[in-house]
Amino acid sequence: MSTVFTKIIEGDLPGRFVYRDDNVVAFLSIEPVEYGHVLVVPVQEVDKWTDLDPVIWTQMNEVAQQIGRAIIDVFGSQRAGYLIAGFEVPHLHIHLFPADDMSGYSLAKAMPADSTDPAKMDEAAAKLREALDCDDSGRPN
């Protein structure tokens, strides 16, 4: 059975993509700790980062680093937070978010999906795509 992330990747569920290629995608979290909270996900369904092909793992981290720089630029944060938790969805994902302190590292403090402002979510995705030089689907220009 497909994970919720596979359903987003395949277009069966909506997602605000900021980056995508044949191996790695990145889209906004529906329960962000801050606007601009991105999930970097391999297209291949793998539960644990320790089980992922090292080549794809390297690619995921290269993409995460690019997005992290974009997060700092777009949102003016001191850093881009990076977190792997993975218990909520059995499909590897890296959380990236604007960080000025350690508060974002507690996903329990994330905004519920129904309390986010859709306009702010759309704006965050658009600004990140622009900073990454990606089109509206997240593909690099």
UniProtKB/TrEMBL annotation:
Active site: H93 (tele-amp-histidine intermediate)
Domain HIT: from-to ranges: 4-107
InterPro entries membership: Histidine_triad_CS, Histidine_triad_HIT, HIT-like, HIT-like_sf
Any one GO molecular function term: catalytic activity
Chain span(s) of sequence motif Histidine triad motif: 91-95
PROSITE patterns xrefs: HIT_1, HIT_2
PANTHER family per the UniProt record, alphabetical: ADENOSINE 5'-MONOPHOSPHORAMIDASE HNT1, HIT FAMILY PROTEIN 1
Stated name of the protein: HIT domain-containing protein
Species annotation: Corynebacterium maris DSM 45190
